[in-house]
Amino acid sequence: MRALWVAVILLLDAGPGRAQQGDRWQLTLNDGTIRWELRLVRFRGDTLVVQQGDSTFRFPISRVDELRLVRKAERRQTAEPNRYGGVLGGADDEVFRLTLYDLAERRQIVAQIFQDHPPASP
């Protein structure tokens, strides 16, 4: 019975709007550079701060081409026998393409990302 309560508390604590332990981000810069396995740290002014392992990086959002929330791949069988969907294809990733937006629109998009996916507390 105690294990059931622990499971319920963990599920409630991991609700939407909270950063999940497994949130991983990918960032693509205008020059084609891609950074993987990032965690969001903060967004202030026009600067996006992310962490990769022990390193912290700061990027002006004018240089950011795309932000992608990489979802954990899961094997799910589709309605069609012997067919699988969403396997390692990135079909469940949230992609935020910033290329066609001006600086003010980029600020709004990145601010919304931080509101929807707040960084985990240190």
What does this protein structure show overall?
This protein is of the alpha+beta class. It has one domain. The chain contains 2 helices and 8 strands, in the order αββββββββα. The strands form 2 sheets. The protein has a 6-stranded antiparallel beta sheet with strand order 4-3-2-1-5-8. A two-stranded antiparallel ribbon has the order 6-7. The longest helix has 14 residues. The N terminus is likely disordered.
Task: Give a brief description.
Helix content is 21%, strand content 36%.
Defining key terms:
alpha+beta, 2 helices, disordered N terminus, 122 residues, six-stranded antiparallel beta sheet, single chain, two-stranded antiparallel ribbon
The helix fraction, in percent, is 10-25%
Beta-strand content: 35-45%
The side-by-side strand order for the widest beta sheet comes to 4-3-2-1-5-8
| Beta strand count | 8
Q: Describe the global form.
A: globular
Biggest sheet record:
6 strands, antiparallel
Q: Any idea how many domains?
A: 1
Q: Give the radius of gyration.
A: 17 Å
Structural class: alpha+beta
Provide the fold topology:
Layout: H1 2-13, E1 24-29, E2 34-44, E3 47-52, E4 55-60, E5 64-70, E6 76-77, E7 84-85, E8 94-97, H2 103-116
Antiparallel strand pairs: 1-2, 1-5, 2-3, 3-4, 5-8, 6-7
